[in-house]
């Protein structure tokens, strides 16, 4: 009996042991399969356990409302450029030279259109859109794609390179808009959203905080506007990349507090800091372009300088707060109000100005003829003066773009140049000719579409200037200078008398 029990126990143990062995082998086999799969796709993970979040975010800490309000009013701005191989002049000798060198002589050879894109913000339901000047600068064609995928061709209303702001218009109505917010009320550390179309990813929203205000990064300074550029950027850490330019910076109410313009980066991609033009400047520039066609730039008439510890010690100043007046221009508003070199300006109309960018921003909000109260320190004493701001010519007159009209002269028709053509060609006005073949201009070699910018020593700003300068020319030969829409510059002689 004991022998049978022993044999049965051994047999049972063998069966159990075999089962454990087989099970262990299968388990190890499955683990090996899992390891192999994970090694093959190490960065891919499934997230199949999807559950709704019941977390309630406190009011003022989520971005849903701001995103819903602002996203429909931010558009994709698509631009097209004709890139040419050279910038050559044409002359009356060209027809003869083409006999030897072919029809391409003296012509800019097109290399095909180049495409670029940015963002824009609808500020009026009847189709006005604000963007950056650098987004549309010298573009042949501007198209706008709305958040609902509708597409419109846009016309350029006006630009202001000194603040990098441009105003577009599309032929549409009842569009969604963003209302202006007060950028002065922004505080360091406040949440903001950047809305735009980075890297052609439409309707992208990123969040960050206001890192600094009144930041000057010297990105707008060129040889043409070295002394006129206004840089007092809002600095944020909201992610902004190429394509975001011209898009909206909004607060948690969805109000427009800035236009995203630049990033601080060594690679061309976002590296932690972005910069936006404050809405206080944007609204003033847009208002000027709509009312006058030109930005009304007011000047204090003083040369200013930053104050740091070294400079304060050198000049014997008892404060590091404010902006030092290094000089005052004769005939300027500052001179007439009694400001002198050595004064330290501390505020404009009650707004403190601790650095040059803040002072320039405050003055940029006004027009020639406006009066501002300037507080300053002289010889350790607090003083104030009422300064009448002036323009570059030390005048209080406003500059208004004339409504140029088309004319007919000597059998040819002359039309005013559009703002978009001026921006593309880098000219300030002109007169575009047509009907050359049936006019007295046919023997000059001039072609239809030529834009006259100068006659002899006189500049041509509008069609009426052509008649005025040629009609009064007494005799001999006068040279007409200008440019074709493709960028080819030319000059032609015409005999009068």
UniProtKB/TrEMBL annotation:
The active site is at residues 134, 164, 245. It holds the Pfam family PDZ_2. The keyword Transferase does not apply. Substrate binds at residues 80, 134, 164, 243-245. GO terms for biological process: proteolysis. Gene3D superfamilies: 2.30.42.10, 2.40.10.120. The keyword Kinase does not apply. PROSITE patterns: PDZ (PS50106). It comes from the Bacteria. Keywords: Hydrolase, Protease, Repeat, Serine protease, Signal. InterPro entries: Chloro_Bact_Ser_Proteases, PDZ, PDZ_sf, Pept_S1C_Do, Peptidase_S1_PA, Peptidase_S1C. Residues 289-353 form the PDZ domain. GO terms for molecular function: serine-type endopeptidase activity. This is Do family serine endopeptidase. It comes from Pontibacter mangrovi.
